[in-house]
Specification:
The structure is a single chain. By secondary structure, the protein is an alpha/beta fold. The chain has helices at about 5-10, 15-35, 35-40, 45-65, 65-75, 130-135, 175-190, 210, 215-220, 255-265, 300-310, 325-335, 370-380, 405-410, 410-415, 420-430, 435-450, and strands spanning about 85, 95-105, 110-115, 120-125, 140-145, 160, 165-170, 200-205, 225, 235-240, 285-290, 315-320, 335-340, 355-360, 385-390. The chain has 17 helices and 15 strands. The protein has 3 domains: about 5-40; about 50-240, no CATH class; about 260-450, Rossmann fold (3-Layer(aba) Sandwich). It is elongated, with a radius of gyration of 28 Å. The strands form 2 sheets. Strands 1, 2, 3, 4, 5, 6, 7, 8, 9 and 10 form a 10-stranded mixed β-sheet that branches. A 5-stranded parallel β-sheet has the order 12-11-13-14-15, sandwiched between helices. One 2-acetamido-2-deoxy-beta-D-glucopyranose (NAG) binds near residues 214, 324, 326 and 327. One 2-acetamido-2-deoxy-beta-D-glucopyranose binds near residues 394, 438 and 439.
């Protein structure tokens, strides 16, 4: 068997061209070292020829570092490392190297191996494993390990020479909070090691999503995003990660949240890395952003809140968080304190300068756990100060609809038990907030104090 035949059977056509002669020779050297693995391909290899190519090979490997890289990768797959890890809490993921091909129209990934047995996994590449309604709208991807028989792999129609990451923007990713916690942060964690030399393959693409996060995506990959659900292409890659890294159950979390917020500030060219530090005779006023909502969980007396905050010494901005992220990030970053009713809008605390303050207004409805888990704990890991203001019955517009001794006030847990939809419809969709400004002033004063320390 000739060298190029061995090579042709181990790599796709595209790869041959890319690796060039250097890789071919290098390949043979490694093949010899791994002769147990490659036994069926090797056949009788003349020893004199081998010595000759060894010398050339070493020389070529030294000049062409690039050529040796995919080779190491190819060797790696011969080891017994598990391709898919389905034992993580939040996200299944598979990592593979060598000859990897993805057929979008069947959501199937083929990976060639000469060592392991045929195997396959089915995973959904979205980091909210276990949440049935989120995962419902996420495509199943099947990863198939093909043993030896390259002819059973689909033919490449597009070949790429950088790694790929496959992920879904289905699930809850249309919601700002979930977009960050389920997709953007795990994507950052998974992709930053590639230093933009990676292609993103997106499944369940929804209109406007990639445009909305364009600045961030551009900083993580310098290539155009591929919509993997579209067309009949078979894309071939030297390596691929399917599913995003998220080991822990914590929200808005990565190993270094402060690195992530720094990354966001750089993506959006935001100037302020730390909030104002007040002295007793401050000339510049601290800025308070009141996150307003139009349809649900609205502040009904926002003017009174503005006046109270101005009295205390804030410069006040009231804004809905519905502009594009360039504008939202600028606005949020220009403020020192952000207040809002529990909801996806306050996810934009990600853009606050460090040491800034988040005030979460928590409506009626047994929301302590979700308020703390979604925004309270994460705000601390971002280096923000956190204040919570729990409204009482009199500050909820639900008093206009229900008597004070109604189940809605007396026993929200019983309504939670009826299911998400009835719960959401009462507490999240039909409840507005009329803050008792006298009481709320205490919280605003605390925020001001926190800017002093
Ligand atoms: C899967 O991931 C978990 C969590 O990171 C890790 O503890 C475990 O060792 C991994 N399993 C395999 C087979 O790699
Ligand atoms: C592995 O799968 C391929 C393609 O389905 C098949 O041709 C081959 O015979 C299988 N090998 C084994 C050992 O089952
Ligand atoms: C996705 O895969 C899982 C596990 O194999 C299976 O139970 C489920 O029915 C599949 N869903 C779809 C939509 O194919
Ligand atoms: C999927 O794409 C392949 C080519 O890559 C084509 O042969 C096949 O017919 C397509 N299948 C469907 C269901 O469109
Ligand atoms: C965001 O909105 C501003 C003002 O409307 C516009 O100039 C800018 O192009 C928009 N940016 C993006 C990324 O859409
Ligand atoms: C508002 O809060 C203050 C201080 O807690 C309290 O004295 C007052 O009765 C409250 N006002 C209303 C209308 O509930």
């Amino acid at each position: 068997m000739k060298y190029d035949e061995i090579f042709a059977r181990s790599f796709s056509r595209h790869d041959q061209r890319r690796f060039g002669y250097g890789a071919l020779v290098a390949c043979i050297i490694v093949t010899c070292c791994l002769c147990t693995v490659f036994k069926p391909y090797l056949g009788p290899l003349p020893v004199s020829n081998l010595r000759l190519t060894l010398v050339d090979g070493l020389k070529l490997m030294m000049v062409s570092e690039r050529a040796t890289k995919p080779l190491e990768a190819y060797v790696e797959i011969e080891e017994t490392k598990q391709i898919c890890n389905t034992s993580k809490q939040r996200s299944d993921s598979c990592e593979m190297k060598g000859d990897v091909r993805i057929q979008g129209n069947s959501s199937t990934i083929f990976v060639l191996s000469s060592h392991r047995k045929n195997a396959s996994w089915t995973i959904k590449p979205y980091a909210r494993k276990g949440d049935i309604s989120a995962m419902e709208s996420v495509t199943n991807f099947t990863v198939k390990v093909i043993q030896e028989k390259i002819e059973t792999m689909p033919t490449c129609t597009k070949s790429h020479n950088v790694p790929a990451i496959v992920f879904s923007v289905g699930g809850y990713a249309g919601n700002n909070f979930h977009a960050f916690t389920d997709v953007i942060i795990p994507l950052y964690e998974t992709s930053r090691e590639f230093n933009r030399e990676v292609k993103f393959l997106v499944a369940n693409k929804r209109s406007g999503w990639t445009r909305k996060f364009q600045e961030v995506l551009d900083k993580l990959s310098r290539y155009e995003i591929i919509d993997i659900d579209e067309g009949n292409e078979v894309h071939c890659f030297p390596s691929m990660i399917v599913g995003l890294r998220k080991d822990e159950g914590k929200e808005l979390y990565t190993n270094s949240v402060k690195d992530f917020t720094r990354f966001l500030r750089s993506s959006y060219s935001l100037e302020r890395s730390t909030a104002i530090k007040l002295t007793n005779d401050y000339a510049k006023k601290p800025r308070l952003l009141i996150v307003s909502r139009k349809k649900t969980r609205t502040f009904t007396n926002v003017k009174d809140v503005v006046h109270a905050a101005q009295d205390i010494g804030f410069e006040v901005v009231v804004a809905e968080m519905n502009a594009n992220l360039t504008q939202v990030s600028r606005l949020v970053n220009s403020c020192d304190v952000m207040m809002g009713v529990h909801g996806a809008g306050i996810t934009n605390m990600l853009f606050l300068p460090e040491n800034g303050v988040l005030i979460q207004v928590v409506p009626i409805g047994n929301m302590d756990w979700i308020a703390n888990t979604y925004f309270g704990v994460p705000s601390a890991t971002m280096g923000l100060k956190y204040l919570e203001y729990k409204i009482n019955k009199m500050e909820s517009t639900l008093i206009e609809k229900y008597s004070l001794n109604h189940q809605v006030f007396m026993d929200p847990i019983s309504i939670q038990k009826k299911g998400w939809d009835p719960y959401k419809s009462i507490y999240l969709d039909k409840q507005n907030v009329m803050l008792n400004v006298t009481r709320f002033k205490d919280t605003l004063s605390k925020a001001l104090e926190l800017l002093h320390s």
